[in-house]
């Protein structure tokens, strides 16, 4: 039998669950790193509870998605292999199957949660609702399109050659296009704000290094997510079963992109702190004991324009609004 999508639906299902499982395993490692970054040397009352809850929810959704995907593959290749009309290929093209609907619902929830986090970060940095109006409208479009997609899947007829009928192809294409627009607009506004902050505090090298690192992390996460969405859009427009593989991979990628921002910022802060200590002449404990001790005096430096808050990215205990200047406490 020839398949219009270039790859058979059952083969696409096997490949997708394998690649998704690999990415899911990596997301577990990133989740552990995220929890470490959020809790290391912090009291319970100092934790950023919102970001912690989001991290856990992303893990739960991605775990449920990969479990449902495995169950679906087992159903198609083993449980209903001989009893389903048309065999495994027909089973995997039946989008009205309960496992497919649940799996796609989990993907939509994961997408909405990930995009909401980016919009929230944008609001925290800009501290005005006017900036996030467009991303919010696009986010609502994603939610509406996702809900319509779920309904259309439950009513869809089976296509034995390709999982992407005209209706499902259009649903996935529009959904991913709106998601891509939401991600790019939010990340772009966030990156632009940080870039402006970097320019305004260019006289402070320490702050400039920090803002540059944050900017790179945010852009890397946005690019990673955007590439996955672009491939999904292309696959759905071409009505290729290969898009089925990319859709399943996007779910753990959303989690990875979220965790990556927090982990890399935490590592960057630690590395930057160590660099400052080295430049400041920090010595070992043995050497320190033989040197005269002097009381530490606080030195406060005020740089106009912005108050930097790691809470906006999930590191601090809470997000703090801009106050017009940034305070850096250095103890010498």
Structure keywords:
mainly alpha, 2 strands, 4% strand, 332 residues, 9 helices, single chain
List the helices and strands and how they pair.
Blueprint: H1 9-39, H2 49-79, H3 87-92, H4 98-126, H5 133-155, H6 166-200, H7 205-237, H8 242-279, H9 285-289, E1 298-304, E2 325-331
Antiparallel strand pairs: 1-2
Tell me, rounded to a whole number, the average pLDDT.
75
The biggest beta sheet is recorded as: 2 strands, antiparallel
Number of strands: 2
Q: What is the general shape?
A: globular
Strand order of the largest sheet: 1-2
As residue ranges, the low-confidence spans are 1-5, 279-294, 299-310, 315-332
Structural class: mainly alpha
Number of H/I helices:
9
Helix % is: 55-70%
Strand content: under 5%
Q: N-to-C SSE series?
A: HHHHHHHHHEE
Oligomer: single chain
Radius of gyration: 24 Å
Question: What can you see in these coordinates?
Answer:
The chain is mostly helical. Helices cover 70% and strands 4% of the residues. The chain has helices at 9-39, 49-79, 87-92, 98-126, 133-155, 166-200, 205-237, 242-279, 285-289; strands spanning 298-304, 325-331. It has a two-stranded antiparallel ribbon. The longest helix has 38 residues, at 242-279.
Summarize the model shown.
The chain is mostly helical. Helix content is about 70%, strand content about 5%. It has helices at about 10-40, 50-80, 85-90, 100-125, 135-155, 165-200, 205-235, 240-280, 285-290, and strands at about 300-305, 325-330.
């Amino acid at each position: 039998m020839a398949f219009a999508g270039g790859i058979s639906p059952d083969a696409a299902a096997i490949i997708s669950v394998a690649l998704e499982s690999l990415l899911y395993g990596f997301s577990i490692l990133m989740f552990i790193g995220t929890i470490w970054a959020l809790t290391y040397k912090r009291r319970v009352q100092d934790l950023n509870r919102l970001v912690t809850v989001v991290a856990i929810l992303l893990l739960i959704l991605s775990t449920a998605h990969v479990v449902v995907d495995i169950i679906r593959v087992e159903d198609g290749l083993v449980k209903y292999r001989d009893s389903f009309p048309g065999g495994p290929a027909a089973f995997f093209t039946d989008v009205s199957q309960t496992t497919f609907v649940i799996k796609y619902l989990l993907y939509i929830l994961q997408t909405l949660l990930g995009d909401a986090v980016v919009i929230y970060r944008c609001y925290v940095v800009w501290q005005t609702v006017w900036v996030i109006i467009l991303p919010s409208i696009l986010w609502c479009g994603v939610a509406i399109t996702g809900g319509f997609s779920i309904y259309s899947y439950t009513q869809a007829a089976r296509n034995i050659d390709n999982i992407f009928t005209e209706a499902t192809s259009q649903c996935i294409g529009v959904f991913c296009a709106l998601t891509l627009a939401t991600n790019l607009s939010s990340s772009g506004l966030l990156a632009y704000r940080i870039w402006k902050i970097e320019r305004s505090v260019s006289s402070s090298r320490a702050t400039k290094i920090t803002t540059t690192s944050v900017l790179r992390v945010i852009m890397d996460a946005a690019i990673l997510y955007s590439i996955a969405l672009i491939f999904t859009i292309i696959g759905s427009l071409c009505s290729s079963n290969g898009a089925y593989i990319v859709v399943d991979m996007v779910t753990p990628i959303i989690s990875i992109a979220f965790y990556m921002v927090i982990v890399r910022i935490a590592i960057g802060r630690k590395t930057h702190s160590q660099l400052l200590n080295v430049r400041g002449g920090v010595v070992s404990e043995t050497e320190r004991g033989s040197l005269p001790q002097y009381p530490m005096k606080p030195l406060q430096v005020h740089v106009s324009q912005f108050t930097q808050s790691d809470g906006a990215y999930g590191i601090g205990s809470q997000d703090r609004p801009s106050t017009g200047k940034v305070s850096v406490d250095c103890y010498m």
